[in-house]
Amino acid sequence: MQKTVHVAVGVIYQNQQYFLTKRHQSAHQGGKWEFPGGKVESGETVAQALARELKEEVAIDILSCQPLLVIEHDYGDKKVCLDVYLVDNFTGEATALEGQQEGWFSLEELSQLEFPAANVAIIEKLKEL
Predict the structure, then answer these.
(1) Degrees (nearest 5) of the Cα angle 57, 75, 44?
(2) Domains and CATH numbers, the chain
(3) Structure pTM?
(4) Which residues are 104's β-sheet partners?
């Protein structure tokens, strides 16, 4: 039986644009764009994991955020539960610290990029806002 990987995801939003990073080719779902985040570690809340991951991965400190949605997805080789938060109040300048590509994109541009399947629901939700 597969274990579900619990992931805290930050939809970083500023000036009508969303910050994305591109997964390394060697990673699961490699070469696709994603909203930054990472695994929720044992004993950590989702909020703590999100704050830690965004600090480590993209050099920002969250001042406040709001829950956007929760997504459960089975890739066949891996199951994920994404706890997704809208992060529109932060300090620092978002920049990819792990050597991956990065960029700011408008909502319209998001539909032209390739994302892991689990992320498609995030984009649909953003269109409703």
Answers:
(1) 40
(2) 4-128 (3.90.79.10)
(3) 0.95
(4) 19
Q: Which helix (H) or strand (E) holds 72?
A: strand 61-74
**21/16 Cα distance (integer angstroms):** 17
Q: Which helix (H) or strand (E) holds 124?
A: helix 120-128
Q: Which of 111, 115, 9 lies closest to 58 in space, CA to CA?
A: 9
- Residue among 41, 9, 35, 4 at smallest CA distance from 20: 35
The per-residue pLDDT for range 42-82, each reduced to its tens digit, is: 999 999 999 999 999 999 999 999 999 999 999 998 999 99
Task: Report the first-to-last Cα separation within the chain, whole angstroms.
Answer: 37
Query: Which of 120, 113, 122 lies closest to 32 in space, CA to CA?
Result: 113
| DSSP single-letter state for residue 5 | E
The two tokens of residue 31 are 């070469």
